[in-house]
Specification:
The protein is of the alpha+beta class. The chain contains 13 helices and 6 strands. It is elongated and about 65 Å long.
């Protein structure tokens, strides 16, 4: 892209920056740093071995890209004006690199969602017989191909190239791309959740009213009475739907409400912040719940090895267990750890 080597744009950008009362680069540094800290906390809270699927591998790669962006911003801010491999880097490139990252992140929502969906569908259909090492290697290559493909599209799109040159060459500000993909994806998820909640309103209210808190094996858990005629059979989509909603909202309700507020207020979030690990984990749990519901006839919860969710223990949410240590509890019961 010609914008990458445009010294004229760099000079114009520096002149504009001297007239700004607020150091936007410092603010950008703090925002990216905050996002990285959020990445670290989220990754530290997740369950182990969640990198054994595509979404887990992609989240780790996203954290690395965020860290790389922060390092680049820090180096350019510190040296201000230097030459590396024949390319002159100035503060202008902080804006340019962040804009490219914003465009790249903005176009990744749909591909990541689609690939993760295919991954879970193949898992349930059991069409893949690859070993553990081969699966990890395959996920690694898919993640790399996804990043390279979207980045190549962003760098090769003439309209994006023109937008970068126009904004950076003649604007006092450094506007960032806001993704429509994340908006429509969040809108679809909220709409599906609302429809599912309305459909199973009575069952959800019954489960919520029956939920109690206790301790089991040194872990605080939620439990609700499990009807004796249900046994281990979860083939009824209506019965399963209410449990999926209770389990999902029990973990992600604050984030779902946040998405509703963002949609109602039409908040414009820059692309480099819009794609983040908590958002991807929310999408991941939504995908797993959807795949469970669509394949409820294949679920035998005593034997099936379910996909690992970083925050929701779906299997413990549905398996009825007879535990004789609980006092004054209707038996059998089903444990919820989400």
């Amino acid at each position: 892209m010609t914008a990458l080597s445009s010294e004229n744009c760099a000079v114009q950008y520096e002149l504009h920056q001297t007239n700004q009362p607020l150091d936007a680069n410092c603010l950008l540094f703090l925002i990216i740093l905050g996002k990285i800290l959020l990445n670290i906390v989220t990754l530290a809270m997740r369950r182990k071995n969640t990198h054994e699927n595509f979404m887990g591998c992609f989240c780790i790669s996203l954290a690395l890209v965020d860290l790389l962006l922060l390092v680049n911003i820090s180096i350019i801010s510190y040296y201000r004006d230097f030459v590396l491999l024949g390319i002159r880097f100035t503060k202008y490139h902080i804006c340019l690199f962040t804009q490219i990252i914003s465009f790249t992140y903005g176009f990744l929502h749909y591909p990541v969602f689609l690939i993760a969906c295919i991954d879970y569908c193949l898992h349930f259909s059991k069409t893949t017989t690859l070993s553990f090492k081969c699966q990890r290697l395959l996920y690694f290559f898919i993640v790399i191909i996804t990043w390279v493909s979207v980045l190549a599209y962003v760098l090769g799109d003439p309209s994006i190239d023109q937008s970068l040159k126009t904004q950076n060459g003649f604007s006092f500000q450094c506007p960032f791309y806001t993704s429509s993909q994340s908006y429509w994806l969040a809108f679809a998820m909220v709409l599906v959740l609302l429809a599912a909640f309305i459909t199973s309103w009575s069952e959800v209210m019954t489960l919520v009213q029956a939920i109690r808190i206790t301790s089991y094996m040194n872990e605080t858990i939620l439990y609700f009475p499990f009807s004796s005629h249900s046994s281990y059979n979860v083939n009824s989509k209506k019965v399963l739907l209410s449990k999926l909603i209770v389990c999902f909202l029990g973990t992600w309700l604050p984030f779902v409400l946040l998405q509703v507020i963002i949609l109602l207020l039409k908040v414009q979030i820059p692309g480099y912040m819009d794609l983040n690990i908590p958002w991807l984990y929310l999408v991941n749990s939504f995908l797993i719940a959807t795949i469970y519901w669509l394949n409820c006839h294949k679920l035998n919860l005593r034997d099936v090895v379910l996909p690992v969710d970083p925050f929701v223990n779906w299997k413990c949410c549905f398996i009825p267990l007879i535990i004789h240590n609980f006092e004054q509890i209707e038996k059998p019961i089903s444990i919820i750890t989400c």
